[in-house]
Amino acid sequence: MSSNNSSSKVVTVDEQAFEQAGEQAVDEGRFPVVDETPEFEATVEQETQAKVDANHPEGIADTSGDRIHGATLAQEERIRAREEELERISAQAELGQQDGRAWRTRQKVEEMRRDERTGTQVDPRAKLDQETLAEVNQYAQRLADDVDSSYTRAVIAKRIASRILEGAELVDAVLDTKDEMLNEAGMIVPIGKLEEIDRGEVSVEGRIIELWEPACPSQQQVGLIEDDSGRTKLTSWEASRAPWIKDSERVRIRGAAKNWYEGRVSLAITGWTTIHFPERGRWWNA
């Protein structure tokens, strides 16, 4: 049996490429082929900026597709933060009156009513120290005197104490309780506070200080009503069939519709409005 002693040299692709790299290509006529592809070189400004971006802590380090073209990382972070802030503002605007005190007020009104009806809840005043309890009772008496409400001082004090136990400061607890009382339907609201009331219908009491000729036939009377806190425009519509109100007369109006006049809140007497004339001693249901 014969054997063939043959040897072969295995050349890798990388080695072939390395060997060919030193050889110059020639054409069919054995003339060297010159590569006419232009070689791109960075300008001095581009090289300088590249060094700044590469070495500065705020330079561009990320080249992913989510990057903002032409912005450094610091600039991009500020842009992203501003966009997130605008989104938060937009979301808060959509919530409208659901934010802040108005939202807390609506959540508490029904609870306040239940407390008064049942009387079964543990009295939160019992958990306050004597000094805080004395202050709570003083503020509760002020609210009972200032706000035309059916709630007694004891019920108001319970609401203030309950808020304090939930973590509110005394002043905030008092203000939230006052807002809660003012926002309850049927409660007499100071005219100067009308813009803060989150209801479409309100009740006010004041004196008519001026009446003028209506601008259109559908209006029966137009004038100004005033109390100690402010004044506002009052319109009585013909369709409401409301009684005529005299100049300088004191009236108590329940269920007046809130409108806006020249950027300020105004009131309208509608078919659902109830009017009381304290100086006449009689009620009138519009």
From TrEMBL:
Signal peptide: none annotated. Gene3D superfamilies: Nucleic acid-binding proteins (2.40.50.140). Keywords: ATP-binding, DNA-binding, Helicase, Hydrolase, Nucleotide-binding, Plasmid. Transmembrane segments: none annotated. GO terms for molecular function: DNA binding; helicase activity. The keyword DNA-binding applies. InterPro entries: NA-bd_OB-fold. Residues 41-65 are annotated as: Disordered. This is DNA-binding protein.
